[in-house]
């Protein structure tokens, strides 16, 4: 599929999905959100893809925020629709994606950009990355899950401070607070993130999908994370991947998971 605002490349079992609007610092607009949604469907349907890396084009920005010019004149109803639809077709899709999604933050991740990164399963960052939710400086609040996911990742107090001050943090502080898992030099970011993705791809993707669901259940108000874990753990015993993994361990060889 031909995309106007994103690029999608494949490297072995890794899909590299880039927001590609460098002149706009990769700002999100409705069209870009829709294209990211369509790309994720394409990736989901590709059995050869095990892991997704989400990043931005260029050296300045991952995603520097939402495209303010697009919604500056919106009504209350239009604003609510913007947030609801964006969460439905993109941010919640990434959070619950059955294949691991790693956000590689290569520069500014602000507003909707940080919200996009936070919807991924975990994050890496370059040393010059800057992250923040500046929405209150515009008279609005984060609308793509930022008030919820930031508090889950860094704690309620720090999330309140970041949102209220509209300030930014650097990669080192993000690492210290657990917002990002690894910090790499800019020139090494993608390669090192690909190494992590490759390591993940060698494990059972059936088990990883179940683990994603179980972890997410623990953060859902209407689900019991422990019950979800017990159910998924038991169901794993009926998979071909479990049979292969245990036999490989007992026979002291590397597993070759069939993905079933």
Question: Can you put this structure into words, describing what you see?
Answer:
The chain is α/β, with parallel strands linked by helices and 260 residues long. The chain has two domains: 6-201, 2-enoyl-CoA Hydratase, Chain A, domain 1 (Alpha-Beta Complex), CATH 3.90.226; 205-250. The protein is built from eleven helices and ten strands. It has helices at residues 30-44, 68-71, 76-95, 112-119, 146-154, 156-165, 171-177, 189-201, 205-217, 225-236, 240-250, and strands at residues 6-11, 14-19, 51-56, 61-63, 101-105, 108-110, 122-126, 130-132, 168-170, 182-184. Helix 1 (30-44) links the parallel strand 2 and strand 3. The protein starts with 5 loop residues before the first strand and ends in a 10-residue tail after the last helix.
Short description:
The chain is of the alpha/beta class.
Number of helices: 11
Strand order of the largest sheet: 1-2-3-5-7-10
- Helicity level: 40-55%
The N- and C-terminal alpha carbons lie at a distance of 28 Å
Sheet bearing the most strands, described? 6 strands, mixed
Looking at CATH, which topology of the largest domain would you report?
Answer: 2-enoyl-CoA Hydratase, Chain A, domain 1
The CATH architecture assignment of the largest domain turns out to be Alpha-Beta Complex
Secondary structural class: alpha/beta
């Amino acid at each position: 599929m031909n995309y106007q605002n994103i690029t999608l490349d494949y490297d072995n079992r890794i899909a590299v999905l880039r927001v590609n609007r460098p002149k706009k610092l990769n700002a999100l607009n409705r069209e870009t959100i829709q294209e990211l949604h369509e790309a994720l469907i394409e990736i989901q349907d590709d059995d050869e893809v095990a892991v997704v890396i989400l990043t931005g084009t260029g050296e300045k920005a991952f995603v520097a925020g939402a495209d303010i010019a697009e919604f500056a004149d919106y009504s209350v109803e239009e604003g609510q629709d913007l947030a609801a639809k964006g969460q439905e077709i993109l941010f919640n899709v990434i959070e619950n994606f059955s294949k691991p999604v790693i956000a590689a933050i290569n520069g500014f991740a602000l507003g909707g950009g940080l919200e996009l990164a936070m919807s991924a399963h975990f994050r890496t960052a370059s040393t010059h990355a800057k992250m923040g939710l500046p929405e209150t400086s515009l008279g609005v609040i984060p609308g793509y899950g930022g008030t919820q996911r930031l508090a889950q990742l860094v704690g309620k107090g720090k999330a309140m401070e970041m949102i209220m001050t509209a300030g930014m943090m650097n990669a080192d502080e993000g690492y210290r607070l657990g917002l990002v898992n690894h910090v790499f030099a800019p020139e090494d970011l993608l390669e090192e993130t690909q190494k992590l993705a490759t390591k993940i791809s060698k494990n059972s993707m059936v088990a990883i999908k179940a683990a994603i669901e179980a972890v997410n259940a623990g953060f859902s108000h209407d689900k019991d994370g422990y019950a979800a874990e017990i159910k998924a753990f038991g169901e794993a015993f009926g998979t071909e991947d479990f049979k292969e993994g245990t036999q490989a361990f007992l026979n002291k060889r590397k597993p070759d998971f069939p993905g079933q």
